[in-house]
Write a structure and sequence with these properties.
Blueprint lengths: L5 E2 L9 H9 L19 H17 L6 E6 L2 H13 L4 E6 L2 H10 L4 E7 L20 E7 L1 E2 L4 E2 L15 E4 L16 E5 L10 E6 L16 H6 L9 H16 L1 E2 L2 E2 H22 L3 E2 L11 E6 L5 H10 L2 E2 L10 E4 L6 H18 L1
Parallel strand pairs: 1-15, 3-4, 3-5, 5-8, 8-9
Antiparallel strand pairs: 2-10, 6-7, 9-10, 11-12, 13-14, 14-16
Helix pairs in contact: 1-6, 2-6, 3-4, 7-9
Amino acid sequence: MTQRPYNFSAGPAAMPEEVLQQAAAEMLDWHGSGMGVMEMSHRGKAFMSIAAQTEADLRELLAVPANFRILFMQGGGLAQNAIVPLNLSRGGVVDFVLTGSWSQKSALQARKYATPTVIASNEADGHTTLPSPAHWQPSRDAQYLHICSNETIHGVEFHELPDLKALGCEAPLVIDFSSHVASRPVDWSRVGLAFGGAQKNLGPAGLTLVVVREDLLGHALPICPSAFDYQTVADNSSMYNTPPTYSIYMAGLTLQWLKRQSEGALSGIAAVEQRNIAKAALLYDCIDRSQFYFNPVDKSCRSRMNVPFFLRDESRNAAFLAGAQARGLLQLKGHKSVGGMRASLYNAMPLPGVQALVDYLRDFERQQA
């Protein structure tokens, strides 16, 4: 069988081949129901069983505590930038740590519903480091503190979530974990709410995941639409309005694939994390040893999922991308706001794919010498 090209897209992103094959096999008839999943009523017995299993697998894989509700919503992380303050801000002060494009978007959106306060930022160094939590000064009256725990565009990642209680802060921590959800364990003792689009590590575009502590429900602003009120969504088991049914199904297949993963004695998310560490190390090591490419992010906070890199001679960018395409290495062009290149190494990217990219980086550098 011919090797499929390796897709390094930042999202929608590559999915596990096993998952795509299973979805193809079940396209016309899911488990003898006579229907494909896209044709099912979201309140029918068949789809309700899919949704329940998907939620159970997610809770198991990410070790989500019983006092958190799992919500299946729509609109992506961008919509949650509005939905979170609509539900949690109570129209008051909300704190933000700005570490890149996505946390900036979150803070700007919150202005419509609350009073955002920037308590730390890495803007001065071009989003290449992370501001140390030891120097944060949370607002006394903040309703929550928001971080983007992995910045997809700038390639910086919190490898450990901040402990707000150690800072004397009682506000819940809100994390946008869109681009590294299910790539590593989550310390839920430090989190009040986590949200993320599924289209990077959990499935196709359309599904937005919200994991919210129960005590944070029931405080939506009066202007909050009912379909965006977390309490309403929770009370109706994510079926208040028609959810993204096929995306939930695909996420369910992806979660089952994640459960089957193993690495030595490790399994599930622990195994996936070790694999992700190895993939990122391989690519960063190649870039760091080169005089032709560079990555500007401080080594202490480099993202395992999104690796931006640049050619020192940018006049060769077009040739680099054309050569990569010819080698079956797709979607390596960097985000338009920062330029350069970007390789996204989500869970579905196998180690051989990263090795193929490293081989190409070395070959292209030699050819250009």
